[in-house]
Q: What sequence folds into this?
């Protein structure tokens, strides 16, 4: 049986990484170039998609990789 993607999801650990790095939402928003509202949606896992350019900018600003930022949760 093939599992549908709707039965699982990707968890974003942006809040944890921001805390570890001591970076505020305001500061990261300025570094990445997206609004605080959109960054907050990402941080709180209220998104269905993310642009690779946004993901790359977040990873660059926080000195991390997508694998550290995202987790697959069945």
A:
């Amino acid at each position: 049986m093939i599992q549908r993607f709707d039965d699982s999801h990707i968890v974003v650990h942006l809040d944890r990484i921001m805390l570890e790095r001591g970076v505020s939402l305001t500061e990261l928003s300025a570094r990445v170039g997206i609004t605080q509202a959109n960054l907050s949606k990402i941080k709180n896992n209220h998104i269905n998609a993310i642009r690779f350019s946004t993901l790359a900018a977040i990873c660059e600003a926080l000195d991390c990789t997508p694998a550290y930022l995202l987790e697959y949760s069945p």
Residues 10 and 72 are 5 Å apart (CA to CA).
